[in-house]
Specification:
DUF397 domain-containing protein, 1 helix, alpha+beta
Length: about 60
């Protein structure tokens, strides 16, 4: 996918690496590092909410 500005990979303890990206039209993306051609797509606000939930420990059961 072109036009996505990918951040550096974030890697957890089990070496699960993810990348977060945004595009100029306001969409946000999250993908497994190395699989950026198959990202999940949503709004930037939805991505912010996901990150806030993870930081607050509200998504630990998903990890």
């Amino acid at each position: 996918m072109t036009g996505i500005n990918w951040e550096e990979p974030f890697c957890g303890e089990g070496a699960n690496c993810f990348r977060i990206g945004t595009d100029p039209t306001g969409n946000a993306y999250i993908a497994v590092a190395g699989q950026e051609d198959r990202p999940l797509t949503d709004s930037r606000e939805a991505l912010r909410a996901l990150i806030r939930a993870i930081k607050a420990g509200e998504a630990d059961h998903l990890l």
